[in-house]
Amino acid sequence: MGMRILGWGTALPDKIVTNHDLEKTLDTSDKWIVERTGIRERRIGDSTGELAIAAGRRALQRANVDASSIELTILATTTPDQTVPATSAHVHEALALGGGAFDLNAACSGFVYGLVTANALLDAGAKRILLIGAETLSRITDWSDRNTAVLFGDGGGALVLERVAGEGQLLASDLGIDGTARSFLQSDIGAKIKMDGREIFKRAVRAMVKSSEQTLKSAKVRANEVKLVVPHQANIRIIHAACDRLGIAQDRAAIVLDRTGNTSSASIPLALVDAIDKGRLADGDLVLLTGFGAGMTWGSALIRWQEPTSK
Ligand code: UT7
């Protein structure tokens, strides 16, 4: 058994914070941020639960399924609203979902970890799963630290996934973690993010390339057959370096970070849905999702795109 994608949705807070806004409080410039990261603005506000609920509601509407038919909700987040209970409990109640729900924390690789987990649970017998990535990184960002404050934003994205006979849309995947690198990007409970940007940069490119290559190899697919890469949206230079090393044209990457900044678990679904909405995908296209994050985690998944209506 495999999975098919039935619906999708995203949510962003209303408040836009531009690089020029940050120039007023930090020793930084729009020019530096754009050149070094590709980010122009980010959205700030709401709670993780609110963003997850809004994105989940849109995905259910797009899928045209009843919320009670969802048998499991997986919320990938590194910024839950409370330590206990899981933020997915709020989402479950607000959307009147069926079945169980849990949060998953694999930092910025969380959505890919969630997709691979969902696929395995559908194969094991679950019928429908709501997978969400939602974050309010603004709450754990030190707004006086120019090394991190220019990077992060808030947002959410969701997919409704359904069990299907046969291979399904997830063709291959790769998940990994190197716990020896966990000090390079961390936030203690109640504290703000601390990051060694240069170290993360180097390791991010390496991890995305290795994990993508492993995934393509498992699926027996060549890099030039990939129609769209949906990378974690951290830094345009990381994305371009990874594409170059993989031999995939840079313009095949889905990009939203100019408008969203780095939204951790939400960044891959935000970029994927943006590409779908722009009509960048046709039936049969191969889509490579690839991410990295604190841990350090990494994860890649190769999907064969299928318009839900054409099934
Ligand atoms: O989801 C994973 C999250 N994290 C990441 O993906 C982070 C990965 N790393 C990066 O994206 C980049 O390393 C950064 C964007 C964080 C930094 O870019 P960089 O090109 O690696 O800059 P750098 O750290 O080598 O710093 C170059 C200079 C330094 O000044 P000096 O020492 O050369 O005088 C920094 O102090 O740029 C300075 N700098 C800034 N200047 C203006 C650092 N941040 C800023 C800033 N505005 N916001």
Set down the secondary structure blueprint.
Layout: E1 2-11, E2 16-18, H1 19-23, H2 30-37, E3 41-43, H3 48-63, E4 72-76, H4 87-95, E5 100-104, H5 110-123, E6 128-136, H6 146-149, E7 154-164, E8 170-177, E9 185-186, E10 194-195, H7 197-219, E11 226-231, H8 236-246, H9 257-260, H10 267-277, E12 286-293, E13 297-304
Helix pairs in contact: 3-4, 7-8
Description of the molecule:
The model has no long low-confidence stretch (mean pLDDT 97). The chain contains ten helices and 13 strands. The strands form four sheets. A five-stranded mixed β-sheet has the order 1-7-6-4-5, sandwiched between helices. Strands 8-13-12-11 form a four-stranded mixed β-sheet, with helices on both faces. It has a two-stranded antiparallel ribbon with strand order 2-3. The protein is of the alpha/beta class. The longest helix is centred in the C-terminal third of the chain and has 23 residues, at 197-219. The protein starts with a strand and ends in a 7-residue tail after the last strand. The protein has two domains: 2-164, Peroxisomal Thiolase, Chain A, domain 1, CATH 3.40.47; 170-304, Thiolase/Chalcone synthase (Peroxisomal Thiolase, Chain A, domain 1, 3-Layer(aba) Sandwich). Oxa(dethia)-CoA (UT7) is lined by residues 28, 32-33, 36-37, 108, 146-147, 150, 185, 195, 197-198, 200-201, 204, 234-235, 262, 293.
